[in-house]
Fold this sequence. Notes:
The protein is mainly alpha-helical. It has helices at 20-34, 42-55, 62-78, 87-92, 95-105, 113-146, 154-166, 177-184, 188-200, and strands at 2-5, 12-16, 204-206, 217-219. The chain folds into two domains: 2-131, Fic-like fold (Orthogonal Bundle), CATH 1.10.3290; 147-219, Orthogonal Bundle (Arc Repressor Mutant, subunit A).
Amino acid sequence: MQIVSGPIGKEKIHYVAPSRDILEKEMKVFLQWLNNDTDSSIIKAAIAHLWFVIIHPLDDGNGRITRALTDMLLARESKQTYKMYSISNAIKNDKKNYYSILEKTTTGNTNITLWIEWFLNTLLSALHNSKDNLEFILQKTSFWDRHRETVLNERQIKVLNKLLNVGIGNFQGGINTRKYAAITKVSKPTASREIKDLIEKKCLIQIADTAGRNISYDIAI
């Protein structure tokens, strides 16, 4: 099994997996090590990911199986039946560097330090993303809890949810009359009235340093 890229005649071979005659032996050693519960750790998850990719036993689906094994070991290490983060998504979001570090690690010597460092940094990124997502969910839930009795029309709810879904400060330039009118398909005077109503009901606040024609608003968390 080879990992190859490039046009026919100009292929670049990135990796050559172990030959078929030693594949069964390599998988047996790997699985014995994998199923040893006495040494579950984050480092083991990193090594298992790399080891399975190196053996590369399948025609297709090696990456998916590898990510599943990694998530399994991380869940086992945390002694929880669920995880609030996904390293699989973090890896898929950084595919370019993922393949680059794999190529560096699987060619030349057997030093896997660079791989371990990359894996741990990616895991940290996954944890940060999970933390941000949880904070976002809590903020959104808290906002609607406060405004459970607030009378709003469908257009106002649509705009507020759009602002909440992208996160605080992430809706470029905030919301203004023009954007509100474009999102809700109403006239600018109607948009202006409904924005004013949202401000009075403490759903929106003016963004600092905006005024006049450039005045914009963000969600009031």
